[in-house]
């Protein structure tokens, strides 16, 4: 390992949607044994956006507590990672910046590479802070995972936004060099511009993910990274929580290590608490894993965490972070618990109605039904523009 390990995640906050559909409800509708969802893929429920929620409203809700704790004077860059883009030209970070009244002296950009995008954003943020240690960068990961109804992917939907403040001398996690990186040209999952739902070859996507785990780890080891046994926990991208277990088992096999299921549960189990009830939130998923780990594990001060970020298509990165002593007094455990339990459970009919709904594309004036009780909402469309407001 080499380099400056004094830059990393200073604060982390997440938000999710107004509604939640349980896998028990989905199973009762489609006749799937519920054990397939609960035990087979490791999912209990999934967040479903209200008509007036999207990646911008979730992102603004995730960012607001960070701005209220730290102010915005040092934030000069916002990097918004998403694969649920609302505009082909304009960055979704701009309406977030506006809703929060952030200073005009800010650069904003949107990044995309499937679920991997937020890790690229984090690495770019670290580079910017390394250039000027007095600046902070706001990294936002916000996505809605949506597949066609009555497909195998449907049980792996979800939605959330994670906001992270990246700075020098962070309060939560220092991010280390090196990174191990990997790219392969694979069409395992994709969403052409004209589609609202993703297309996926489920089995191919699982094996592409495992291939990427190997590739990113191999590069990480070649770059002089830590040994596997130095890590106390591993945050994997979690399209469904059982994928993290599969991935870690695969990594152990690849490294010629013992497959001890108890040990795998020890290093993975606490990263899954939020994803199992929120579902796949694409770019935000791995960082929800980190939030769950920090919020719920015993003291992790000084311990190393491994991160495996995967984005279909495919790009992956393995990197390490060290937990900063004293981090527990900077967590948002109660607020995170609240955003999960405040969701309103919906029945299958309401879920289907929301799934099938799409916003008009005629450019006329349209008031979006008032549904969310979150802090920000998509209020209207007018002249092909989205109009947001505090609720
Ligand atoms: P499927 O065909 O519905 O399910 O597809 P299955 O038959 O493979 O069963 C799933 C597991 O449940 C199996 O366990 C079964 O044995 C078990 P495994 O063999 O995997 O250990 N099972 C049961 N367990 C208990 N009781 C039962 C029972 N029945 C079966 N009664 C699949 C599952 C995940 C493929 C599907 O949901 C899908 O296509 N999802 C979308 C794609 C996806 O999530 N891929 C993951 C890797 S790609 C990725 O992570 C990137 C992504 O996030 C996008 C991005 O990067 O932007 C997706």
Automatic annotation (TrEMBL):
InterPro entries from the UniProt entry: HMG_CoA_synt_C_dom (IPR013746), HMG_CoA_synth_N (IPR013528), HMG_CoA_synthase_prok (IPR011554), Thiolase-like (IPR016039)
Superkingdom classification of source: Bacteria
Family (UniProt): Belongs to the thiolase-like superfamily. HMG-CoA synthase family.
Species of origin: Actinacidiphila paucisporea
Hydroxymethylglutaryl-coenzyme A synthase C-terminal domain location: 179-252, 269-324
Annotated Pfam families: HMG_CoA_synt_C, HMG_CoA_synt_N
Single GO molecular function: hydroxymethylglutaryl-CoA synthase activity
GO aspect biological process, one term: acetyl-CoA metabolic process
Active site: 83, 115, 237
Entry keywords, A to Z: Transferase
UniProt domain Hydroxymethylglutaryl-coenzyme A synthase N-terminal: residue ranges: 7-169
SUPFAM superfamilies: Thiolase-like
Binding site residues for (3S)-3-hydroxy-3-methylglutaryl-CoA: 147, 246, 280
Name used for this protein in its record: Hydroxymethylglutaryl-CoA synthase
